[in-house]
Structure formats: structure tokens, C-alpha cells
Design a protein that fits this description.
Shape: globular
Order of helices and strands: HEHEHEHEEHEHEHEHEEHEHHE
Number of strands: 12
Strand content: 15-25%
């Protein structure tokens, strides 16, 4: 009589076959439905402990303002970057209509010009519930908040480009980022040096302490070096653009929505390399004679893709202190990150971040 293996052997074989089948099913599921990866360079898709949806690129963000939850009632002071002015005009009025009890009160500093740095200072000093910034937080601002018993959080909500304004009659096709840097460091002083006419260059800038745009420009374009003494310091962008409109050799930099639609100046094309010019406006240049019936429009695609060399993110700066101010700041950021908020941000002349 043939001998059969003990029953335990059959059980072990069946168990092994079942385990192998299960592993194949798991492998097939993972292969057909891959999980998103975390981009360490920009943290998109990364879930950090304690992060709220407003801190991440959230594919399931609400579509409309009315769908945002946890919007507090009360009067909330906010302020900061002058770059945000078009957003305050275009977006915040709609927010107030949908959420009338979420009352936003724009607050200017008493003894200093408005700007990103001033707004963050006012936030640290408990003068604001949240602030708007055109630059990231600095390490010393994080540190000061910690000494005061809370943390600061920056929430990106839009993309902006830095446009370079010149006189409409200036015959220069474009300049590189390096040439722009050399102009503001005083190394290039005549337009002839960059392929233009024999004409002295007059660079204009707001004060380095005035706001986030100047700080961003110094840090990212000038690579941390100081403005040349040849740079004429102006009080604000309006006065700077007027100066460029009067001066054929003038040059100024500012947030693209503040420059490109203007009738009296021209946005200069910028390139990473000579000849690789990327215009900050769409299509052909609309000259002053045809403006304001037609205006130049932002080259949104170039800003979004990064083809245009000088872009940045705009941030809502929030106190992480488990108080009503934090709730207000996060609610404001969440509203901006809705589909409705992102569409209004684009109507204001900026680029949607998601």
C-alpha cells in the first residue's frame, strides 16, 4: 500500500499557495494604482504632521467660497505686501459678500511704509491677525516668533513674476538676469553695453527696507549684494513708473501686474542666456498710442511654467497659536485656494498656484 504524506503537509502546501496568491494580488494593485510621491524640493504632495490642507497642494480643495469650513466671525486686521493690492481689490470684496461676518480690515503701519517685512513685524507685535507677503519668512522671523511663544506658518497661494519696466521707446530687445544684476550693482551704466543706444542707464528702486519685492530682488537677482549707490531710491512703484516714463534711460522692477498693463512703460524681455528672451507680456507689444483701448496682458503661461526667469510665490503668513487669529489666517488661505479663489487671483493678474 502506498504511503501518503501526513495531513499537515497538505495544509502547509495550501497555506503557501494562498500566501503567494495574496502577494500577487497586492503587487498587482500597487502596480495599477501607484501612490503619489513626495517632491522634497517643493514639498508638494507631502503630508507633514500637523499640516492643514491649506499648507499643501490639495486636489480636493473646495470649489466655492461658501464650501469652506471653519471661517470665524469677527473683525480681523490684516496687511503687509503692496504686491497683494490687486488681490485685496479683486478677491477680498467677494469673500466679504459670501462671508459677511468674516470682516477683514486692512491695516497700514503707522510710522513705516507698507510691505511684506512691515506686515510680518506687525504680526509679531500682535497688531495683525495674519499678514500677506511677497517673500518667504526669514530665519530670524521664525526665531522671534518662537521666543514669543508661537510659530509662524507661510502658506503659498499664488505665483507672481517680477517685471522690468523701461521707457517705451528704448530699442533693446532684452537683457539677461546677469545683465540686470550688473545694472543694479553699477557695473553696467550705458544701454550700449547690452545692445542698445548710447544712453546712460538710470536704475530706480524702492528702499531695501520697504517691502518683499525689493528684498526678493536683492536676494535672488543681486545674490545678496547691496544696491549700487547709482540706484535712485523712490518712495513707491507709482512714482518709479512715472520716473521711467519720463526718462528714456530709466529702468525699474516690480510685481508684473503693477507693470505690464501700464500705458506709459514697457515690460522688458528677460533671459537666462543672451538671445533666449522671454517676454513678460503676451503676443506683440501694445504701444502707448493704442493704450488704454488695448492693454498688454501678462504672459501667464511663461510665469506658470517657469520659462520666465524671475518668478516667486505669494504667501499668507499665519500665527500657529491655536487662537482665533490662527483660525482667521488659515480660513483666508483656504478661501484663496478654492477654485473660485484661484480664478479670482488670475483675474487680479497673478498665476493660480493649483
Amino acid at each position: 500500500m502506498a504511503k501518503h504524506p501526513p495531513p499537515i503537509i497538505y495544509l502547509l502546501i495550501l497555506g503557501a499557495l494562498g500566501w503567494g496568491t495574496w502577494q500577487l494580488v497586492v503587487f498587482w494593485r500597487n502596480s495599477s494604482d501607484p501612490q503619489p510621491t513626495c517632491n522634497a524640493s517643493d514639498r508638494s504632495g507631502c503630508s507633514d504632521p500637523g499640516s492643514s490642507p491649506s499648507q499643501l497642494t490639495n486636489a480636493s480643495a473646495p470649489e466655492f467660497f461658501r464650501e469652506v469650513t471653519s471661517v470665524p466671525s469677527g473683525v480681523f486686521n490684516y496687511g503687509g505686501s503692496t504686491t497683494w493690492a490687486p488681490i485685496r481689490l479683486e478677491v477680498d470684496s467677494v469673500i466679504q459678500t459670501v462671508w459677511p461676518d468674516f470682516m477683514l480690515r486692512y491695516t497700514d503701519p503707522v510710522a513705516a511704509p507698507p510691505g511684506s517685512g512691515t506686515g510680518i513685524r506687525m504680526l509679531l507685535d500682535n497688531q495683525l491677525s495674519f499678514s500677506q507677503s511677497s517673500r518667504p519668512l526669514k530665519s530670524e522671523e521664525y526665531a522671534e516668533a518662537e521666543t514669543r511663544g508661537f510659530a509662524l506658518v507661510e502658506i503659498p497661494t499664488a505665483i507672481d513674476g517680477i517685471a522690468v519696466a523701461v521707457h517705451p521707446g528704448l530699442a533693446v530687445e532684452g537683457i539677461t538676469v546677469t545683465q540686470l544684476r550688473d545694472i543694479y550693482l553699477g557695473r553696467i551704466r550705458n544701454w550700449q553695453e547690452v545692445g542698445g543706444p548710447d544712453l546712460s542707464i538710470t536704475p530706480y528702486s524702492r528702499d531695501p527696507e520697504a517691502g518683499g519685492t525689493v528684498e526678493f530682488f536683492i536676494e535672488n537677482v543681486l545674490e545678496g549684494e547691496s544696491l549700487s549707490p547709482t540706484v535712485e531710491i523712490t518712495q513707491n512703484t507709482t512714482l518709479s513708473l512715472r520716473a521711467v516714463a519720463r526718462n528714456p534711460g530709466g529702468i525699474y522692477y516690480a510685481s508684473a501686474p503693477e507693470v505690464i498693463p501700464q500705458c506709459t512703460v514697457k515690460g522688458l524681455a528677460i533671459g537666462r542666456n543672451s538671445g533666449e528672451w522671454v517676454s513678460p507680456f503676451q503676443g506683440s507689444y501694445v504701444p502707448p498710442s493704442r493704450c488704454p483701448a488695448r492693454r498688454n496682458r501678462l504672459h501667464v503661461t511663461a510665469f506658470r511654467t517657469g520659462d520666465y526667469p524671475i518668478t516667486r510665490r505669494l504667501f499668507v503668513i499665519v500665527k500657529d497659536n491655536n487662537q482665533t487669529d490662527e483660525q482667521a489666517g488659515r480660513a483666508y488661505a483656504d478661501l484663496l485656494l478654492t477654485d473660485q479663489g484661484q480664478e479670482l487671483i488670475e483675474q487680479a493678474g497673478f498665476v493660480a498656484i493649483q
